[in-house]
Amino acid sequence: MEVKENKDVLLTGIKVLDLADEKASFCPKLLADMGASVIKVERPGGDPSRDIGPFWKNSPHPEKSLFFQYNNANKRGITLDLEKGLGREIFLKLVNKTDIVVETFPPGYLKDLGLGFEALSEVNPRLILLSVTGFGKDGPRSKYKSCDLVASAFGGSLCVSGSSSTPPLKPFGEQSHYTASLFGAIAILLALRKRTQSGKGEHIDISMQEAVASTLDHVMVRYFYDRVIPERQGSLHWDSSFCISPCKDGYLLLTLFQQWETLIELMDSEDMAEDLVEESWRDEEYRLRHADHIIEVLERWTKTHTTDELFKLGQLMRFPWAPVQSPREVLESPHLKARNFFVDMDYPQIGTSIKCPGSPYKFSSGFLNRRKRAPLIGEDNISVYRNELGLSDEELQRLSSMHVI
Amino acid sequence: MNKGVLNGLRVLDFTWMLAGPYATRILADFGAEVIKVQCSKTARGAESDLTGYFNTWNRNKRGITLDMSYPEAREIALKLTAKSDVVIENFSPRVMSNWGLEYENLKEVKRDLIMVSISAMGQTGPWRDFVAYGPTIQALSGLTYLTSFSQNPPMGLGYSYSDVIAGLYAALAVLAALEYRDRTGKGQYVDISEYEAMCTLMGPAILDAYLNNNEILPKGNDADHIPAAPYGCYRCLGMDRWCVIAVFNEAEWQALSNVMGHPSWSTDEKFSSLSKRKAYADELDELLGQWTGRYTSEELVSLLQETGVPAGVVQNAEDIAKDPQLRARDYFMKLEHPALGMVTSDASPIKFSDSVTADWKAAPLLGEDNRYVYMELLGMTESELSSYIEKGVIG
């Protein structure tokens, strides 16, 4: 399926070959959303990330993975077996016509196939190669296997999530892959600028562990400056500024100390402030030392309200409170609807169009917030191999019968 | 600023806290001249120049003071804008317009300006004026709900992840807008919503909610949609020490079984395939946890990885600071700060073949670059500068 070219889009003209599995398929998607032309190169039979759910109608099938669908929208797709000589020959022809290759193979894999950065540079000296791996291409742990769980553990996001009475808790939903992909996309745009200056490409080496460790907010700062090793403290924020409290119909995230007098007035007007009206609680240090008691009193108050009542009331008084929303509530968010955050995406496999999360930025020009569904396995083989590389129908037949494509 | 690839790019930086400074730190690390605008009245907490937090997120930037509550400050800000490529801010939506510094005003003095606004909700929509910090956004996006062992109670992440995500998106937006400006000559305005940024990283779960009539429940560390079992976090020897193990295929399962010395349960029929192991995951986790508890996390993970089983140490801040892998790759670096001394922070996970951090510098002291910016860049005289300082406009 051809994506309609529009010459006035942010990254028009930038060509990307996407060999990435789940570790970084979000990176080329970010570039595709901004108008780059991305070809997903899958091994014959399809990329293994097609096995990751959730699935449409909950039935596992490589064309029905919603994970794959989301992370590969706006791309075209071909199949190619890099482990066959003929496959490699074709790959080099594609490399010659591209700006960027994104890959997530174990370090050394492409080199062993004769497709390392040096070899690719010989074919195309302007090529930018982005490698996303668990630990980076060098160092004592570079050969270790990784996945979202392993990267999150080594990177430090587990150790501060969860509570002291539970095991450490992994952030939901492949966050290490998304983070590595965001760093990767930034690195690619930096490398493109560098290429304009030097005329030469670049091999960018992103480690998922490092990507995770770079998203930890206070964690490493407090260690380096205060020698504090942050611990898990459930839903209580690290500096006790926020907690999560039950309401009639769900949970509310709320502040403990901010605008103290306003908070006490609110609660007292409903006769729910208890002893918090006393003078001693006006002292910030005292409140911090007795946060547990404040949480108990708050809880008795929040339980008499719905999350929506307190969300509205809190925001009216400029408290940064919010309901703990489920994905369904996110879909129904009036704010996201008003901003047209969700975009329609045709999904012919199920005979309809669906609402897909769009992009978080509104560019005043050069951006089309639209989604083309992810490619079917090998969907664009003919258009890419015949129309762009100039292979004949006979050659295509032969490649197909040899399982190269 | 240093000799990085963005050398020559000037960024007027009105950001504060984490999301905005994180974005401009990336630009500064790669050579952009980022001029951070502060005001001594508000330079407290996360914006105090003598805190580790400020120093970490504002390195490689220049710093000036300008009190926007004075009408003269607007004129100065416009002159600075005229000399900048990018203006970036992360105030509540009404702040820049109250100062008369909306994109419409700014582009009059700099035709091809790129202006990026990061806010909690975005510049439009019914919740545009809502107050939110990282934890608020994480609660709204579904991340807190799903990062929990059960619905009652939800737990969430122990840090403000969404601020970093908004910062990363903002850096990406600046670079994409530059690419576009260089090709078309056009600048533009970019409105980034942190709420939406966080929701983009919940994509598959949101599609699941839309397409399948599932009630999506939090599953803790369970594999859920990932084709792996065992998959989870297991207790090891020592105080609060843990490892993770993820077994995706038969070869990895056999390797794990080998390392364990083939206990009788490992050959049990109910663990004989991936789908069966997933079906009996709770029982499997229980048995595996009894075994992992006999080892330290470090020795166990080495044993497992040597035989090809994906496994990891649940590292805390100290483990990460001392991690031989991160050290071998120069993930951390030291910078000398005039008041805080020699301090360590992360370098950048983005490295180029010729990356050097030798010319990186600590965050600016409050108003450190006033003379350079106001006199050299804007051409103020010594007496003009002192008079602005005296009035409090620059201060």
Number of helices of chain B: 18
Overall average pLDDT of chain B: 96
Distance between the termini of chain B: 23 Å
CATH architecture of the largest domain in chain B: 3-Layer(aba) Sandwich
Approximate helicity band of chain A? 25-40%
Quaternary organisation of the protein chains: heterodimer
Beta-strand content of chain B: 5-15%
CATH level 1 class label of the largest domain in chain A: Alpha Beta
Rg of chain A:
26 Å
Per the CATH scheme, the topology name of the largest domain in chain A is Rossmann fold
How do the SSEs of chain A run, as a string of H and E?
A: EHEHEHEHHEHHEHHEEHHHHEHHEEEHH
Query: How would a textbook summarize the main sheet of chain A?
Result: 6 strands, parallel
Mean pLDDT of chain A, to the nearest integer, reads 95
Structural class of the helices, strands and pairings of chain B?
A: alpha/beta
